[in-house]
Amino acid sequence: MDKCRIEDIAQIAEVSRAAFYFHFPTKDDVLLELLLQGEAPVSAAIEALSERAPLEDLLNAITDSMADFWQGEPRLVLDVFSVTLRRTAVVTDREAVEVRALVGQRFRSAAERGELSPLVPSEALADFFLLSCMATMASWTTSAIMPLKDMLRGMSLLFLNGARGVTSPAPPPAPPPPAKGKKG
Q: Can you give the CATH number for the domain in which 118 is found?
C-alpha cells in the first residue's frame, strides 16, 4: 500500500482524483473503511447466534467470519491493521465499536454462565481475544502455512483453554528462605 498512489487507486476505481478525496482524505481512510466492511460479517455472525450459545460456538462464529472475509486479502491485512494501530486511539467507550461491543456483551453473558474465568473482567478478555485474532491474521500473512480459518480456530482454542471458567490453581508455594551459612 505504501507504493500505491492516490492516482492508482482512483484509476482502478474509475473515479477522478477529486472524487477520491471527496470520500477519503487519505489512503489510510480507505483501509479503515475496509476494516469496517470486514466487521459487518463478524457482527452478523454474532447476532445470528442465540444469546446463550456456548462460548466455543461464539468464538468459532467470530473467527470463521473473519477468515471468510480476509482470506482473499492477505496483502491488505497487515496494511489495515497497521493503520488501525496507528490511527485508532484507545477507545474507552466499548459501545462505539460495534464488534467490540457485541463480543464484550457475549463474553459478559458467558462469564455469568461460568464459561469464563473471573480472574480478568470479561470485557478485557473480549479485547484480548480480538487482539489475538488480529495478531494471528498478521502472522498468517507473513507465513500462510495453513488456511486462515484453521489458524484462527487454533488460536481460538488456545484462548479458550486459557480463559475457560475453571477454579484457578493455588499459587505455588513460596520458596524457602536462603540458608544462613557461617562465614569462614
A: 1.10.357
Q: Cα–Cα distance between 172 and 112 in angstroms, integer?
A: 28
For the chain, give the percent of residues with pLDDT over 70.
80
DSSP H helices in the chain? 6-13, 17-23, 27-48, 55-70, 74-87, 98-112, 122-142, 148-163
In a domain, 114, yes or no: yes
Residue 60: domain span: 27-163
Residue 48, pLDDT > 80, answer yes
pLDDT confidence bin for 108, thresholds 50/70/90:
very high
Burial of residue 98, with CB atoms counted within 10 A of its CB: 0-12 exposed, 13-18 middle, 19 or more buried: middle
The answer to whether the pTM exceeds 0.70 is yes
Tens digits of residue pLDDT in 67-79: 999 988 787 888 8
- Residues 6+ positions from 7 with CB-CB distance below 8 Å: 17
User: Total domain count for the chain?
Assistant: 1
Burial 42-66 (b: 16+ CB within 10 A, else e): bbebbeebeeebebeebbbbbbbbb
